[in-house]
Amino acid sequence: MRKPQKPWFLGGLIIYLTSFFLNAVGGLPAGQPIRGFVSAYLALLSWLNMGLMRQGHAFADKRLAFVCLMVSGLINPAFLLYVIEPSKIFRRVLLLMIPSCWIFFYYEHLIPHEGHFLWILGMLLVLYGARPAKLCQRKAEDLALRGPFASISPYPWLSFPVLGQRRAVISGE
Length: 173
Description:
The protein has 9 helices and 3 strands; from the N terminus they run H-E-E-H-H-H-H-H-E-H-H-H. The protein has helices spanning about 5-20, 35-45, 65-75, 75-85, 90-95, 100-110, 115-130, 135-145, 165-170, and strands at about 25, 35, 110. It is globular and about 50 Å long.
C-alpha cells in the first residue's frame, strides 16, 4: 500500500486557504473586484435569500443563475467534509459542482480573477494530488477481490478479473 503524498495535500490546502484573501471575481458594477472569502460568504448566503427568485426581484428572470449560485455556495462546505472524511463520492460531487460557478459568472457577466483559479487549483491538488490512506486501503481491497485487472478501470462494472480468482471469491475459498 502506497503512503499518501502529504506535500501535495498540504500544498493544496495552503493554496486553497490563500485564495480566500485574493481577488476572486471582477466585472461588478461597482468596479472593484471582491475577495474570495466575500464571494464564498455571499454564495452561501444565497440559501437564506430564496425570495430573490420571486417576481420583481434580482433573479426572477435568471433562475438557472441563482440555482448555480446556490450550488456554488455548497462547494466549500463539501470540500471541508472531504478534507475531514475523504471519499470518492465527495470528490466526484465537488468536480460536478465547480462548473456551476462558471455558469453563474456567465449569466452575471463576471470575470474570474486569480483567487478563483487558485481556489480551484488548491481543491484539485487536495482531491487528486494525494490519495488519502482510506482510499488506498479501499483500492487494495478491491484489487484483492476483483483481480489484477481491477486497477485498469476506475469503475467496478468495467473490471476484468482473472477467472481463477473470481471463482475463489464467489465460492468463498
